[in-house]
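Hello,

Our lab assistant flagged a job as stuck in the queue for most of the afternoon. It eventually completed. Since we weren't sure the result was trustworthy after the delay, we are filing this so someone can double-check. Below is the sequence as submitted and the structure that was eventually returned. Let us know if re-running is recommended.
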Amino acid sequence: MKIYNTKRLKDLQKEFNNRFPYLKIEFFKTPHEEGVRSKEEDRLDPNLSIGAVREKPNIGFMSMDGEMQVGFFEKTFAHSFGLNVQVYRKSHGKWLQTWVSDVWTLEEQNNRGKILGDIDDALAS
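-- returned structure --
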């Protein structure tokens, strides 16, 4: 996904969710420590532009490689583009922060979300 200052956070969210339909990303004012969840009260409005929420003016591309570990994906976003991101996974009809399983790859997280979503759909039928 291409990162530049006038792009909106919600556009990055949409691009990410198109690639990983059982995952989503949220942006936060402050970074979270490894193995610690982000504070929901620090979540940023997705209508904000990238330039409004970061100090690094870098323009570039962020890889959405499914083999990338979630923790590495989040750290790369922060280091390269000054954006504090948290990956969420769909689980039993709710969105959960993946902080416990940040060593899983994006593809593993997405597959787990698909399995848990399919189970929920089967139980609802």
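-- support follow-up --
The delay was a queue issue, not a problem with the job. The result is valid. The two ends are 36 Å apart (CA to CA). The chain has a mean pLDDT of 89.
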